[in-house]
Specification:
seven-stranded mixed beta sheet, alpha/beta, 246 residues, two-stranded parallel sheet, Spore Coat Polysaccharide Biosynthesis Protein SpsA, Chain A, globular
């Protein structure tokens, strides 16, 4: 087991039309890291990858950084997509530990130190904030909860993954885990990049750990996820991965 050491954490946040959330989120991240029990010399940066939002998301971000958590804003004028935005953020990150999260407050900032510590202080390669691990919770409508559970059960079975929450997208991993991986192929599509990442990594011997958390639906702004369409897309990608077509 590795000793816990000081580290630099890069929090990667893909955005599109999140001006109503992003400033409050970055403030909350800064407060969370200031109050965490991570080593005192741990540093944190926030990397926002914005797909040229017309609502001023990028401009709002540039004025919201802090000395404790400086923000780097990347605006992509000619490219869109959640998976590729996450990849761009990782490529631009300076941290040893990468945390990927959403901008809509569905992912609790309080989990960031725990996720980072899991991959820094023990034999874990990827820590997953899990809605469906014991102790986890998904605050949503009954049909969305059941649909999400069924989808994740299907994905877990098809891919033979020891993970209950394959699609959450709130994860921490060590940068060195991505060496020699085809990141461009993995980080494609929408949230299914997380399915491909966990599957490819597990087959390489990554050690995965789920940490329960409570998922809350966004309170401000519009969701970009259309559950049925997304679920079909995720299922198709899982089948392609299992059949070796990707």
């Amino acid at each position: 087991m590795r000793d816990t050491v000081s580290q630099k954490i890069s929090v990667v946040i893909p955005t599109y039309n999140e001006s109503q959330n992003i400033v409050s989120l970055m403030k909350k991240i800064s407060e969370t890291m200031a109050e965490s029990t991570l080593p005192e010399d741990t540093t944190t940066e926030i990397i926002v990858v914005d797909d040229n939002s017309p609502d001023g998301t990028a401009a709002a971000c540039r004025s919201a950084g802090s000395e404790r958590c400086p923000v780097k804003v990347i605006v992509r004028a000619n490219e869109r997509g959640l998976g590729s935005a996450v990849r761009r953020g990782i490529l631009e990150a300076a941290g040893d530990t990468i945390v990927v999260m959403d901008a809509d407050f569905s992912h609790d900032c309080a989990m960031i130190p725990e996720l980072a510590l899991a991959v820094n202080g023990g034999p874990i390669d990827v820590a997953i904030a899990s809605r469906f691990a014991e102790g986890g919770k998904m605050s949503s409508s009954t049909h969305l909860l059941l649909g999400s559970r069924m989808l994740n059960a299907f994905l877990r079975t098809v891919l033979a993954l020891p993970v209950r929450d394959v699609t959450g997208g709130f994860i921490a991993l060590r940068r060195d885990c991505l060496q020699d991986m085809d990141s461009q192929r993995i980080f494609s599509g929408y949230g299914d990049y997380c399915i491909a990442l966990l599957y490819k990594g597990f087959r390489r011997g990554w050690r995965l750990k789920e940490i329960p958390f409570t998922y809350n639906p966004r309170q401000v702004g519009l969701s970009k996820t259309r559950f049925f369409k997304t679920g079909v897309s995720y299922g198709m990608r899982a089948l392609k991965l299992r059949m070796g077509l990707e």
